[in-house]
Amino acid sequence: MMRQSYSKIQQIGTFIGSIPSFETKKSFFASKPYILLFMIFSLLGFQSTSFGQSQVEIIKADSLVGQNTPFMQIRKLLGNVALRQGTTLVYCTQAILNETTNVLEAYGKVKIIQADTVTITGDTAYYFGNDRLAKMNGRVKLDDGTIILTTKQMDYNLNSHVAYYNTNGKIVDKKSTLTSREGYYNTVTKLFDFKHNVKVVDKDGSLTADSLRYSTLSKEAFFIAPTTIVNKKDTTYANPGSQYNTITKIANLKGRSTVKTDDYVMTADTMIYDPPTEIGIANGNIVFVSKKDKAILTGEHGRYAKKIGVTRVFGRALLKNVFENDTLFLTADTLVSLDNKETKTRKLYAYKKVQVYKSDLSAKCDSLSYNVSDSTIYFYQKPILWNNKNQSEADSINILLKNNKVHVMNMKGKSFVVSVDTLNNYNQVKGRKIVANFTKDSKVEKVSVDGNGESIYFAIDDKNKLTGMNRVQCSKMNMYFGKSKISKIAFLAKPDGKFMPPKEIKEDDKELDGFRWKIADKPSKESILKKVAYIAPVETKPAPKDSVSQKKSPVKTPAKPLAKKNIKK
What we know:
Layout (H helix, E strand, L loop, with lengths): L1 H16 L4 H10 L1 H11 L13 E4 L2 E6 L4 E13 L2 E11 L4 E12 L3 E11 L4 E11 L4 E10 L4 E4 L3 E4 L4 E4 L1 E5 L4 E12 L2 E11 L4 E4 L3 E5 L2 E5 L4 E3 L5 E11 L2 E11 L4 E12 L4 E11 L4 E13 L4 E14 L4 E14 L2 E11 L4 E5 L3 E4 L2 E4 L2 E7 L2 E16 L5 E13 L5 E7 L3 E7 L5 E8 L2 E7 L2 E7 L4 E5 L24 H8 L37
Antiparallel strand pairs: 1-3, 2-3, 3-4, 4-5, 5-6, 6-7, 7-8, 8-9, 8-10, 9-12, 10-11, 11-13, 12-13, 13-14, 14-15, 14-16, 15-18, 16-17, 17-19, 18-19, 19-20, 20-21, 21-22, 22-23, 23-24, 24-25, 25-26, 26-27, 26-28, 27-30, 28-29, 29-31, 30-31, 31-32, 32-33, 32-34, 33-36, 34-35, 35-38, 36-37
Pfam families: OstA_2 (PF13100)
InterPro entries: LPS_export_LptA, OstA-like_N
Organism: Flectobacillus rivi
């Protein structure tokens, strides 16, 4: 060691001695003192540029030419060049190695192998040994056994194991091909970060985005920008925070995403969607559109299974069925749609707190089924329906729609129909079974009673003046209506009734047992939409302690709300 140091000191002395005169030496080092320090540290083995990094070593070459300058040691290598730094090997046809700066310039069939795990090839390269950074140019290819990355230029940091390109890159694995303008790839974690014009393509479809993170191990894509996924059967529009498995095709969508197929469109705050099984789970303000039926289902939560034809929506659930000149609004706690692929029929079921509105129909009941194919709606658990100025109640009711208008209404068990005439009198019919027929403009045309029939109807003359009231009991009867009043009545069994002139009519005589006019309970479009509307919670901030608002003030007890009562007239 002492001999080596002495030899290097001698070299310094030789160099200094080569300066012509003492005065010249003095002025030279006085003007450039750092050069003397650099020379001393360099010759003593303290190169300031290496800081403990290992030197790039020459393994072989067909020819080697050395070039020494006062401050640089350069080696030019030609033919079958091989170099090494630790576990990293570099191969090329020509190279220039600056041993002083530990920088390598490599040309022709450049290959860099890091620890037998990552292989990078290119036309030319700059390799900075102290920083362990390779700058590859030309036809660049990176192969880590998992993927193959090709581009025109690439930087690879052997310390952080991160490759970077911004000249359009292409990544190929066993299942898919990914392209982007810019990208970062960690060869240890196998994570890619892509930017600008990102596209993933496989045999089943494609994925496009402006930015994307992708794991070559799990084959999962992590969305950091709006992303579009196109498969054979569907298209998905996803927002940042979502994930997508390119193998299983399962998408975990967040941030108000949408899935579209030929038959439907589904949108929600969060969704899990499996295209192969066509099963979707949605949460948060979902909107499900059936293109074929012109129906829209909305709610807080939803489940969809296309293969078995089941759609379930619950939590502020609402159906909007669009007809040519009208829309049916139906809300309930839970809505279930069943599509029978064999019979090509569709049925809708509604459970708990059902409300219906249509321009010619309003209804309330506990549960409901709607056969879309034959336009029949079944109401269960003591339903009540309103149609124009008519009110109908029974243990169960079904109505048949014709041209999207109420055509026939069938009532079973404790049936009760109320119709308001032009003088605001309440014509009433009750019985065990009632069938009501309607005109094209949804007005009552005929009411048929079968079993335990009772009726009250008011007689009105041509001048729209009350002439009396009929109260009849008859097991079977038919009542015909015209211009909002009874025009004809036929008793099919022995009737028991009486006619009362206007002066003899008492208030108690105007009502059958069980009569209730419940117009205040009638659902409207506005009341249904208000029921299902989402109201964001209002955040209240406490006032400062020294605020005037903290002073005590008289507190008035709020008045109790009026109890809801059925309006009885």
